[in-house]
Design goal:
It comes from Saccharophagus degradans (strain 2-40 / ATCC 43961 / DSM 17024). InterPro entries: TfoX-like, TfoX_C. The protein is mainly alpha-helical. It has helices at residues 4-9, 16-24, 30-36, 38-47, 54-65, 74-91. The chain starts with a helix and ends with a helix.
Length: 92
C-alpha cells in the first residue's frame, strides 16, 4: 500500500520539496489535491509566505492531469494565472 507521502511523490512534477509544501497546507493525497484544486492550493501556499513561482501552479495542475507542467497549453497556463490572481485579489 502506498503511503500518502509516496502517493504525492508518484505524481508528475512533484518532488520532495513540493510534497512537503503541500503537507504544510493540508494536502496529503491526490484526492486532497483534486478537491482543493491547483489554483486554491497555489494561493494557500503563497498566503503562508512560501515563495513559489507560477511553475508551482503549473506543476500542481499537471500533477492533477498526469502531464508534465511544460506540456500544458499556453491558454491553460494563462487561465490558471488569471484564476490565481482573481482568488488572491478577493482574499487580500
Amino acid at each position: 500500500m502506498t503511503s500518502p507521502s509516496n502517493e504525492l511523490l508518484d505524481l508528475k512534477n512533484l518532488g520532495m520539496a513540493s510534497v512537503n509544501i503541500l503537507h504544510a497546507i493540508g494536502v496529503n493525497t491526490y484526492e486532497d489535491l483534486a478537491q482543493m484544486g491547483a489554483v486554491d492550493a497555489y494561493c494557500r501556499i503563497k498566503s503562508r509566505g512560501i515563495h513559489v513561482s507560477k511553475v508551482m501552479l503549473y506543476a500542481l495542475q499537471g500533477a492533477l492531469m498526469d502531464v508534465h507542467w511544460n506540456d500544458l497549453s499556453p491558454d491553460l497556463k494563462s487561465q490558471l494565472v488569471a484564476e490565481a490572481e482573481q482568488l488572491e485579489s478577493t482574499s487580500a
